[in-house]
Amino acid sequence: MPLVHFFETSFGRTYSRKMLLVEVVSGGVSGWGEVTCGEHPYYNEEWTEGAWELLKHYIVPSSLGKTLGSAAEAGGHTRGMKGHKMARGGFEASCWDLEARLKGMPLWKLIGGGARKEIPCGVSIGIQDSVEQLLEKIRKEVEAGYQRIKMKIKPGWDVDVIRAVRREFPSILLMADANSAYTLADIGHLKQLDEFQLMMIEQPLAHDEIIDHAQLQAALSTPICLDECIRTAHHAEQAIRLGACRIINIKLGRVGGHAEARRVHDVCEKAGIPVWSGGMLECGVGRAHNIAMATLSNFTLPGDISASQRYWKRDVIEPWVEVSPHGTIAVRDDPGFGYPLDLDFLTSVRVRLESFSAQ
Questions:
Q1: Regions of the chain short of the pLDDT cut 70
Q2: Does 1.10.1040.10 match the CATH number of domain 2-105+340-349?
């Protein structure tokens, strides 16, 4: 699926996505999940082709012919596998959607959400070709009503660029996402960001450096938000205990699905650490799952869930995800994740299909 506009982070520029969807069927009803990894192993160790092989040879075979009492049991069949949370999470998410549809209830209710009927939305803006181009994109999103702007940063595209943004937009909710582009040697440089009253700096250091983030957070007044570091509820407990962050981003795929996302959420809520939903350039399937997750009570900050049309010329769900003029998404009460699949379009863009049966 080609993007409407390229999306650039500290580890590269993306023009199109190769998406991996999982469908599980029971009693003539389908549940759908999305494997949210990228095409290359740069965000973490997972990538689309690798996830396909893992699903084909390990995740699906581990579940065929077995009865699940509930979707909460789906993760148990892959518990012995190390890592690969996104591949496992896409399968697990499809089971949650299936259970909700079989019960005729919305997914948000099944996972224990429902704290809000509208999701506050922010938008993530990648690194641009010029500061002027970035300012124009921010202006467009602010005028569209988005409640928070996240801008990607990297060395050479950080302090001076944020200063220009703050000069043009002094009062917007603004955060910076580094995608692990810095080290502790950059503490002095990163301290300069304190002058801009940012909501947070997201994942400035390496994906596995909780201890170094604690040292950095002690040196900054700006809150650090951890993303790539947090793959389990235990990681969240460790980060909070060490003072490595003041905010945590929960990505459904990164933590392996709804069951672990709820556990991470509960750990953070108990500790008074707010959370929000991050994005992985999902199509409508993953986006709808994120909406359901964001109805949990501690998702108090605007997340990266935005309108389908920001990213796709055409989405695989119908209707598309839409954002209101005041920057919210209405939570739907339809069964499952709440949006029908556009199966004709999905078939037209499909490049590979493999089916499995217990028989």
A1: 10-11
A2: no
